[in-house]
Amino acid sequence: MVIIKYAAAYKLAVIVMKRMMCAFVGVFLIAIVVMMQVAGKDIDKTGYIKYVEFNVTSEALKDAVNLDIESQDSDNKVDFITLLAYLGAKYGGDFSKYSRSDMTEFADKIKSGENIESLTDDMKYFKYYSQAYGAALNGMVGNFSEERPDDSGNAVMEEKYGVRWFSPIARTFPCSSYDDFGAERTYGYKRRHLGHDIMAAVGTPVVAVESGTVECLGWNQYGGWRIGIRSDDTKRYWYYAHLRQNRPFAEGLKEGNRVKAGDVIGYVGRTGYSSTENTNGIDETHLHLGLELVFDESQKESNSEIWIDLYAITNLLESHQSSVVRNNETKEFTRQYDYCESNDDN
């Protein structure tokens, strides 16, 4: 009888152990799924990225861009997005770990002729960061022609390779900002700030950061008078908000228009935070600049929109501003110098 009782107890213990093991495995698998989602992994096989955290620092972005530009005379050129994707994979997206030597060491290997695929073969998320950072930065650096006055004062087109995007604030107009992405906002409901605020005076000319098509133009109770511009590759949706009361947009600007990087598109104001059109509901005049990444059109107007921190990008662009001139009759500003991008780089 004792043996039978021990046998029964043993069987019961085995059953309990199996069930506990199943529960543990289930929890473990759920944890893996969550971690993969946080890392931006496409676990449901739909084929597009659903989550991006752009934590690239200003220092890392500037270093990568400089190495890209400096390498153009080399046989083996360096691509700044590839450099950032490598470090993103190395750091798990955490650029607080950034070391310039990590970047230059990788860049030197590329310039010496080493194969990028072999250098990143053991990096599980290199492809993900290449796609994510590519969506955020494609076209920022490349070939372009820009009009400049020569020694005689005549305007000539000069071919260049370098930064092709412009600061959203025109040259000579004072502005200031800090990294406010994720700060709390309470109008309408409690939410995170999904953009970058740039303080500037009312009427300051706002320019297009990059070339694209005006996709949205009009009033929104949160953003006030605002403009939405889609990049030529459709991956980026730029959002310019809180524009000037009464005359928010550049003269003649309409939905469907194509604008070039550096074109004047509107003017800084403080409209918004009201369901009544043309209301100054914002306390401080500023430009709200947002950047949404769009990997699939289903993300565009949804609960799973991907907005990224722009501070590092706007920091870099402070050194590349568009010069503008004022028409005293119409009081409108327009760009001073012509500009043309190479289509080969779009």
Jot down its keywords.
about 350 residues; alpha+beta; Glucose Permease (Domain IIA); eight-stranded antiparallel β-sheet; three-stranded antiparallel β-sheet; 7 helices; about 25% strand
| CATH architecture grouping of the largest domain | Distorted Sandwich
Low confidence ranges: 1-18, 20-44
Q: What Rg is obtained from the alpha carbons, in whole angstroms?
A: 25 Å
Following the backbone from N to C, one meets helices and strands in this order, namely HHHHHHEEEEEEEEEEEEEEHEEE
Number of domains: 3
- Count of extended strands: 17
CATH top level of the largest domain is Mainly Beta
- Which structural class fits the helix and strand makeup? alpha+beta
At the fold tier of CATH, the topology name of the largest domain is: Glucose Permease (Domain IIA)
- The CATH H-level homologous superfamily of the largest domain: Glucose Permease (Domain IIA)
Instruction: Determine the mean pLDDT.
Output: 88
In percent, how much strand structure appears in the residues? 15-25%
Termini separation comes to 83 Å
Give the % helix.
25-40%
- Distinct helical segment count: 7
Large-scale geometry: globular
Q: Main β-sheet, in a few words?
A: 8 strands, antiparallel
Summarize this, please?
Helices cover 28% and strands 23% of the residues.
